[in-house]
Amino acid sequence: MSDPGATVLVVDDEPQIVRALRINLTARGYKVITAHDGTAALKAVAETKPDVVVLDLGLPDLDGTEVIAGLRGWTTVPIIVLSARGDSADKVEALDAGADDYVTKPFGMDELLARLRAAVRRSAVAGADGADAVVDTASFTVDLAAKKVRRHDGEEVHLTKTEWGVLELLVRNRGRLVAQKQLLHEVWGPSYETESHYLRVYLAQLRRKLEREPSRPRHLLTEPGMGYRFEV
Amino acid sequence: MCSRSTWPCKPRPEGHTDSVTTENAPAKPRRGELRIYLGAAPGVGKTFAMLGEAHRRLDRGTDVVVGLVETHGREKTAVLLEGLEILPRRHAGHRGRDFDEMDVDAILERAPEVAVVDELAHTNVPGSRNAKRWQDVEELLAAGIDVLSTVNVQHLQSLNDVVERITGVTQQETVPDEVVRRAEQLELVDITPEALRRRLAHGNVYPAERIDAALGNYFRPGNLTALRELALLWVADQVDVALQRYRAEQRITDTWEARERVVASITGGPESETLIRRASRIATRAGAELQVVHILRGDGLAGIGPAAMARYRKIAEEVGATFHTVVGDDVPAALLDFARGVNATQLVIGTSRRSRVARLFDEGIGASVVQRSGPIDVHMVTHAEAGGRLRARLGASPLGLSRLVAGWVLSILLPALVTVVGVFVPSGLDFATDVISYVLVTVVVALVGGLGPALLAAVFGAGLLNFFFTPPLYTLNVHTPQNLVTLIAMVVVAVLVALVVDQAARRAAQAARARTEAALLASYARTVLTHANPIERLLAKVRENFALTSVTLLEKQDGGWQPVATAGEHPCADPDEADVDIAVTADVHLTLRGRALPAADRRVLEAVAGQAFLALRQQRAAAAAARAERKAEATELRTTLLSAVGHDLRTPLTSIKASIGSLRAADLELSEEDTAELMEAIELSADRLAGLIDNLLDSSRLATGAVRPHLRPVGYDEVVAHALSNVDGSDAVEVAVDDRLPSVLADPGLLERVVANVLDNALRHGGAPVSARASAHSGQVELRIIDHGRGLRKGAADSAFAPFQRLGGDRDTTPGVGLGLSVAKGFTEAMGGTIRAEDTPGGGLTVVVSLPAFSVEFEQEGVR
């Protein structure tokens, strides 16, 4: 399910990667613009106003986080970063600077596409409410309007207020990484920043209530140290 | 009454009297005999032994029933139950759960001769007739039934606190000691810790699933050894000794002052060895550490030679004490200063070696110490040398204050005495005798008091001789020139003797001082030769020996003075600040702070300073050598890496190129399946390459120390779930990680790599089923990845984590360069955790990752 006509800006200094992405994304109906370094990227975003930016962190001229900071100064365009394996530090830095999601190199094409779709959808429905009031998964259905969850074996699941708050935020951002800080801010309040153990406990409870195999979650996924993601 | 010599025998019904008792006495039912099998830990074989005995009695025709035996799923134990009559258990419910308990009534009704009842310390389900099983057993014994039972040493009440410290687990089930001691027969079932661990590894004690952090900790060799020792000692009634020691050891965590510390002072005489050994016994009894100190007097006159010092140092080390040397003139003061400095609580010194006569003049060190010791207890130890003869110290007597005073007093007293004798016994003494008496007196005074008093005695004696015995009597005139010559000669003799005595005393003092210096220098030289980092030790010794505040070695670097090494507080930053400054070279100074030292001490210090400089050079050379060696090692690792990698990286690349070549071949018509297969091969090879490169990168990051973990609270459940999604074949992994366990302090990315690597290793080499379990114990949370494959070779537990280790050795053809576990170890340790390999009970490998728990209390709303 792609978004016909959505524009993607691909920023990477490695021509093979750019080529592979360009071919794949174009074939799926995206309009693809490319840039090969940070300065070109900043210019391209200003000129073409893409719907989503795929940004490699290892650019030759500017640091990836500098590009993000530069963009975030004036635009809320979704940014997905491509980071090298190893340190979670550069990913966390990127997310803190304002990136929305990440994919680790070498990545599977499917993973990148899923994140792209999720990112584009958010910018499309920002503000609009009605669509997607009901989200269906393989094991349960979430009714955002009625604030209810029903398991597919018929049982309605009772959630506490906080549990619902967490679930709703994740579901509204389904497919996207929701940072720990964002979850804490929106569900508990702006003064909550470091209480990640709260999240752990509540996610564990949600998994126990909703997942078929809580120790192998399929929908309520944790990216340890970074955040959470709801997959349909 | 059943006696051992009459088998078989049946119990008499209650009320039946023995043939020996009187007819009118009420019949006392015979009490059953209790036989207990005591063990140090689960799995040693108590139940096994008990059942063996039951069978033996059964074979002899005794009526034996099994009241209750727990097999814990152990096959060998279960097999032994066959052939014995087992009474059914009583079912009891409590809080919705069903329990099986021993049916006491059924046993009493059945009235066997012997009942077999396992686990004496067991707590019965609430609602049972007795709270504890040992009370049930008491009932059986009171009814005349013999009982065989088992108990673990951890259940004994008196050992509760010690066992808790050893194992870290609070003991809930306890048995009062008397119950066990009252048993007619107590059999200790004992096996070595290694044998028990082997049993555990074979799966004969607990199945693999039951091993969690607490049990894993319980079965550590150190633990098992301590428990075994405890059991042995308890049976031998020697627990007090061990308890003292355990408690003393535990007190390491208590405040420092609370510890007992014993200081023994030796003079260096032959009684020193006795003293050290006695002091060692005193220290052991008090659970204290022992320090032996030898006071070197500044003038060295009471000192011992280096050979003797080395001998006593060796004896001190044998008994586990440390040996110290302190230089000081006032021995009691120096000793007490040292003792207070180390917070000694007890002092051990020898009783005086002096005879009673000598003690008239000088009480000796012992009494002085006792007087001034304050809160420190002083033990005076007798020895064979105590109360020795008055030893004439020819020419070697120290010219201490007391001697001088004695000398002056005698210089007046003795000549007066001679005069008195001469005056009141006029007939017996002629002039010559008088003269020689006065000369004798002068010589004695010279020996005692030295030059000054001798001169006075000479002049005074000459005066008295002149006045009382030289004609004309009672005047100071001398008539005959011979008498004048005699008088003058007497004075001259006296003066010469005094001079000689004084010289001899000085020479002796010098020689003794030289001996002290030699001893000190020898000890410093030994420090430099034998220690790995001699400078610090050398400076510390100097500080201790001379009782200084600080000793610092300064080096001139970039125009300023930099401290190279220091001992003590308030080190000097500049040679000008020092009380004593010794220049080794223009750029290196040894500075001392604390007090000014006499010139004689400076000689020694200059020698020491030279040695310190040499030690410094030596240390720097060693450091450079170590750096060079590390570089060589790193190069070697890199070479090995490159060669190992060459093959393993090229293989997937080859596969990729071959597949791509086939796909791109213009002249090749491939079926759809073939195309799909080739493309799958490309993807798999690419994945494999990625995995290898990850491991290589991680290895090299670890090798160069470039891993910087960002620690934060992380849950094992989250990390394991994430790791599973990235590992091939993860469906075969059974996960039992409770999400309610405390978080651990870890770097999420690194921990995920650790878990992924270990899982990958388990799946690849161990084969399914693989399980992941987590459990918490005493501040640590452990994750166990358990496989049931081939397991480790004996003794390979440590080398498993070395890089490039492959199970099958060099001929192992399984893919992978053998870095997974070494990377896992490196990352785990970088996060401050530990990783180890254990045998899975029943065969296989268990890798245990242990990290500190990060727990936080907070309020939670709503329903749990």
Task: Describe the model.
The complex is a heterodimer of chains A (about 230) and B (about 850). Chain A has about 230 residues and is α/β, with parallel strands linked by helices. Helices cover about 40% and strands about 20% of the residues of chain A. Chain A contains 8 helices and 12 strands. Chain A has a 5-stranded parallel β-sheet with strand order 2-1-3-4-5, with helices on both faces. The model of chain A has no long low-confidence stretch (mean pLDDT about 85). Chain B contains 25 helices and 24 strands. In chain B, strands 18, 19, 20, 21, 22, 23 and 24 form a 7-stranded mixed β-sheet that branches. A 6-stranded parallel β-sheet of chain B has the order 3-2-6-7-1-8, with helices on both faces. In chain B, strands 11-10-9-12-13 form a 5-stranded parallel β-sheet, sandwiched between helices. In chain B, helix 19 (about 480-530) runs antiparallel to helix 20 (about 535-545) and helix 19 packs parallel to helix 21 (about 600-665). The radius of gyration of chain B is 43 Å and the shape is flat. Mean pLDDT of chain B is about 80; it is low at about 1-25, about 250-260, about 390-400, about 810 and about 860-864. At the A-B interface, helix 8 and strand 11 of A face helix 22, strand 18, helix 23 and helix 24 of B.
